[in-house]
User: Fold this.
Amino acid sequence: MSDLAIIRDGGMLIRDGKIDIVGSSAEIEKNATDCEIIDAGGRVVLPGFVDAHAHPVFAGNRLDDFDRRAKGETYEQIAAAGGGIWSTVEKTRAASEADLLNQATKHANWFLKGGTTTVEAKSGYGLTVEDEVKILRVIRRLNEETSIEFVPTFLGAHAVPREWRQSEYVDLVINEMLPRVAAEKLAEFCDVFCEHGYFDVEQSRRILAAGKKLGLKLRMHADQLTNSGGAKLAGELNATTADHLEQTEEEGIAAMRSAGVQPVLLPGSVYALGSKRYPRAREMIDAGLAVVIATDFNPGSSPTTSMPMILSLACTHMKMSPAEAITTSTINAAYSLNRGDKIGSLEPGKLANFSIFDCEDYRELAYWFGFPQTHSVYVRGERVVDKN
Ligand code: NIG
Ligand code: FE
Assistant:
């Protein structure tokens, strides 16, 4: 993960949206006849970031929660007092598909400006059959109408809506939501918020097993606020990823290791909630796990679309090297979304999704923080962000 295979004075030949040749500039120039030339001289060129955990479709914001947190209230206290996920659910239910698409398109442009070209997108702010389907349809339209590739994940088990009893809501997710989502091919993954007060291990197991049976791959919100056995369950079910893991200890790490689960670490939410407990990234890397870092973009616990900010947090608070931060936000993330053969690195045959940054050393991306260093961004060889 520390070996980035950097090519100094490198170049790429792009044809039909894909990378044809990668090598030294001199070599590329020999092969380039009748081409448009993009001069990235003196700058860093990287694969587009792959953000493997995000909640980009929601209505409104959580400014009131933000105000309360500044006064010292916790995420759990704010949720109990009427803020939290539920307040976003109410606004999202009231919004039309067009309104949601409008707001999410704004979010898509924020992602692009930070150099992100692929984003995993969870439902989870609808919590009725129709509202979850509405969100997943918005994700489908975002895919068609923006430059970003969105990878859809069904997260009907994000919270228990006010109008339902816990066990009955779990039945609704299993018996009505999941079959509909699978029949309409609206999601590739199924996710659950496995946490005290949300869905316990037994309920999470039932929901995820049902999703798996319908052909969905699994991701999980695991051990975020308490060490509730989430990482272990991810191992048991052979989930593709277990995400958050702030409270995961040796046992959970061992379970992920033996099942080949990829940990998705989300330092933006630790930072934004004002917590001090970051996940044990070093231990996970040393255990040989293919760690991923992502934004967890959402209005409540991680209001950022910026992967460079996540790189900064990964190095500063999780003691990852800048090279590891790049690997975990590109190629490892691509594999976690089942797209390791198409994106995540600049290699012949892959999509020409890349960003050019105004810096001379890739480590500057994680070092300077809080402002964009993006020069320009390309998706399938087309320029989609241009600083000038
Ligand atoms: O990943 N943990 C649960 N879901 C989100 C928070 C969603 C919200 O607060 O709106 C998360 O942190
Ligand atoms: Fe999340």
